[in-house]
Write a structure and sequence with these properties.
single chain; 483 residues; alpha+beta; three-stranded antiparallel beta sheet; 12 strands; flat
Length: 483
C-alpha cells in the first residue's frame, strides 16, 4: 500500500498562487522595457536614431548627450520636500515619528518621488520589522517598478495582489539562483526562492490577516482610464531631446570638416606641393608648409591664394535655443533652467512669475504623493497594533513650500495675519507660515516652554520673598502688646 504525503502549505505554492505569480510576472516583464527607456533618457544613455543623411559612416559612433529630461524631472522633485507626518488634530505624533525615524522616510521619500516622476509610479511595501522583538517598528520599504507590479481593482481603488522579484542575497539559500519572489496577498506575504528543479520553494509565510494588500502605489499623472501612472518623460520630451542631440551631433560633424578654414590656390607650380627630393607632400604638410611662401611662375606671376568662408554654427545654436524653449514649455520650467538666455536677463519678479506652472505642478504632486504616504503610515500602524487605526483620526503630510518666496515676504505676511488677529502669535501655524522647518518649530516650542517655566518659577520666588518681608499682623494693626 502506497501512502501519499500531501504538500505542506508552508513549503509549497498552491496552483492559484503559481498562476497569480505567472500573471503578475508577465505584466512586470512586459512593461520593463518602457521603464528602462525612460531611465535611459534620464541618465543620458539613450540611442539617437541616425537619419543617414548628414552623419558620415566614420562618425556613427559619436554620441552626444543633452540632459534636459533629467533637469526637468529633478527640478520638479526638488520642490517636493516631505518634512513630517503628523496627526491632523494636533495631538502628540511621537508614535508616527517613531515609524518615520525607524524607516528614514524623510530621506527615502526623495528617492520615491524621483522614481515616481521618472517611471510614472513607485511602490511602498509595508511589513513586520526584522529586529525579532514584539515592539519592533514596522518596515516601510520603497520598491522600484522595475522589480515590482501591482494588480489593481479600479472599483475598490485598492490592490488585490502584488509581486516583487529581487535578489535573494545572503538572506536565503537560493540553490544557485539568487532570485527571490515576494507575493503580497490580502491575508499573507509569501517569500519564495527557485529550486534546482525549476520550481519555487517557500521560505517564509507572514500570515498577517490584514484583509488588504500591504502595498501602496505612488502613481504620477493618473487618469480615470489609466491608474498606473505616466512618466514626466513623455514622448514629446523624448522627441525634442533626440532632435536636440542630433543638432549637437551636426555641430560636432561640422567642426570636424570645417574647423580649419578651407583655402584654394590658383596658378601655383607643381613644385609647391613637392619636397626637396621631388616627392609629393601630404595634404597637411602642404597646408601648413610652403603654401605660405609660394614662388612666382615662369611668367613672373604670383599664384592667387584665397580662403572660403568658415562654417558659422550660430544657425544651429538658434535651433537648439528653439528646442530649449519648447522643452521648457513641456516641463513648465523657466527657459533659463535649460540654458536658454537672452541679452536682457529677466528680473527676480519675472523669474518667479515664470515658475508659477512649476509650483502648481509641485502642489498637485504633493497632494497625490501625500495620499500614498498617509495610506502607508496607516498600514504601518495597523501592522504594529494589530488593528486598523481610527478612521476619524487623519494623518497629515507636512510639505515645504514649493514656491520660492523670500524670507522677508514670508515673515511680513505672517506678521500681518498675527496683527489682524487671524493667527495667535504663539501658534505653530504662524511658525510654519513664516518658513520655519519642522525641526525649527519644535525647537521654538521647546524654548517657549522653558521660558514659561522659568517665568513661573520667578513669580513663585517673588511671591515667597514678598511673604517673608511682610510685617506681622500685630504690627500692622498697631497693637504693641501693652493693652
Amino acid at each position: 500500500m502506497t501512502l501519499s504525503i500531501p504538500d505542506l502549505p508552508l513549503l509549497g505554492l498552491s496552483d492559484d498562487e503559481l498562476a497569480l505569480i505567472q500573471v503578475l510576472r508577465q505584466d512586470m516583464l512586459s512593461d520593463r522595457w518602457r521603464l528602462q527607456l525612460r531611465d535611459s533618457y534620464f541618465n543620458g544613455e539613450q540611442l539617437i536614431r541616425d537619419l543617414g543623411i548628414s552623419i558620415p559612416p566614420q562618425l556613427k559612433g559619436l554620441h552626444t548627450v543633452i540632459g534636459w529630461p533629467r533637469i526637468g524631472v529633478e527640478s520638479l522633485e526638488e520642490r517636493l520636500d516631505l518634512e513630517a507626518l503628523r496627526w491632523a488634530d494636533g495631538s502628540d505624533s511621537s508614535d508616527l515619528q517613531e515609524i518615520v525615524d525607524a524607516n528614514d522616510l524623510l530621506d527615502e521619500s526623495s528617492l520615491a518621488h524621483l522614481d515616481a516622476l521618472t517611471y510614472g509610479r513607485e511602490y511602498l511595501a509595508v511589513g513586520s520589522g526584522d529586529c525579532g522583538t514584539d515592539d519592533c517598528p514596522p518596515l516601510i520599504s520603497i520598491e522600484s517598478p522595475l522589480d515590482m507590479t501591482l494588480m489593481w481593482d479600479a472599483r475598490l481603488r485598492m490592490g488585490t495582489a502584488a509581486l516583487r522579484e529581487c535578489a535573494a542575497g545572503d538572506l536565503y539559500d537560493a540553490g544557485g539562483d539568487d532570485r527571490m519572489l515576494v507575493l503580497y496577498l490580502p491575508d499573507q506575504t509569501i517569500h519564495a526562492v527557485p529550486t534546482t528543479s525549476g520550481g519555487w520553494e517557500v521560505v517564509d509565510r507572514d500570515i498577517h490577516q490584514l484583509g488588504v494588500v500591504p502595498v501602496i502605489r505612488m502613481a504620477n499623472r493618473q487618469r480615470t482610464a489609466d491608474r498606473v501612472g505616466k512618466s514626466e518623460i513623455t514622448p514629446d520630451v523624448m522627441s525634442i531631446t533626440d532632435a536636440a542631440c542630433r543638432r549637437l551631433m551636426g555641430i560636432e560633424v561640422a567642426s570636424e570638416f570645417f574647423g580649419a578654414p578651407q583655402r584654394y590656390i590658383l596658378g601655383a607650380s607643381e613644385s609647391a606641393f613637392q619636397d626637396a627630393e621631388g616627392n609629393a607632400k601630404s595634404a597637411w604638410e602642404t597646408y601648413i608648409g610652403r603654401v605660405l611662401a609660394l614662388e612666382r611662375d615662369e611668367d613672373g606671376n604670383v599664384p592667387t591664394v584665397g580662403q572660403f568662408s568658415a562654417h558659422d554654427p550660430s544657425g544651429q545654436t538658434k535651433i537648439i535655443d528653439l528646442y530649449a524653449r519648447i522643452m521648457a514649455s513641456q516641463f513648465g520650467l523657466p527657459p533659463h533652467m535649460l540654458g536658454y538666455t537672452t541679452d536682457n536677463p529677466a528680473s527676480a519678479d519675472a523669474i518667479r512669475s515664470t515658475e508659477a506652472k512649476l509650483v502648481k505642478r509641485a502642489e498637485r504632486r504633493s497632494r497625490r504623493f501625500g495620499a500614498a504616504w498617509q495610506q502607508a503610515m496607516r498600514l504601518a500602524l495597523w501592522v504594529r497594533d494589530g488593528e486598523p487605526p481610527d478612521k476619524t483620526r487623519r494623518i497629515e503630510c507636512v510639505w515645504r513650500n514649493p514656491a520660492t518666496p523670500t524670507v522677508a515676504a514670508q515673515a511680513d505676511a505672517t506678521v500681518k495675519l498675527v496683527q489682524a488677529g487671524i493667527l495667535p502669535a504663539d501658534s505653530d501655524v504662524a511658525l510654519e507660515m513664516a518658513g520655519l522647518t519642522e525641526n525649527q518649530r519644535q525647537r521654538v516650542t521647546a524654548d517657549r516652554l522653558r521660558a514659561r517655566g522659568t517665568s513661573v518659577l520667578d513669580r513663585l520666588a517673588a511671591l515667597g520673598s514678598t511673604a517673608d518681608a511682610a510685617p506681622s499682623p500685630e504690627v500692622v494693626s498697631g497693637d504693641n502688646g501693652l493693652g
